[in-house]
Amino acid sequence: MTDLSDLYQEVILDHNKKPRNKGEIENPTGVAEGHNPLCGDQIKLTVLVKDGLVEEVRFTGCGCAISTASASIMTEAVKGKKLEEVESLFHKFHDMVTEETDKSSFDEMDSLSVFSGVREYPARVKCATLAWHTLREALEGGKKVASTE
Length: 149
Description:
Blueprint: H1 3-17, E1 30-36, E2 41-50, E3 53-62, H2 65-78, H3 83-98, H4 122-139, E4 146-147
Parallel strand pairs: 1-4
Antiparallel strand pairs: 1-2, 2-3
Helix pairs in contact: 1-2, 2-4, 3-4
């Protein structure tokens, strides 16, 4: 394993063991649930949006290390961002874990770049993207359960 992949693995394990922003927001503006039937990951995400900014985002649920770490890191990455920025980040993240992309674009992804290696394991892509799909559903009104299928 390279030093970089060792670091990435360490970050994912840290966020899995000590997830950030775990819990629920008391009066959220959006709520959604997500499920990855392939792996069994389940997530509930609450978000508070004010004046077009993601002010707070939290999650509960259970899942594998990649799913939990992705939710934890995602909540940190989107806090304080405009809704348009969140949507752009969703697309960049999704492209990073699903397509062959220029690695120099990972620099702008900050801590999210730890998931760049997930692309090599197609079944794990669903684990990494579950929180993102659930966030989008919460921002759109949470009418259905977000799924990776």
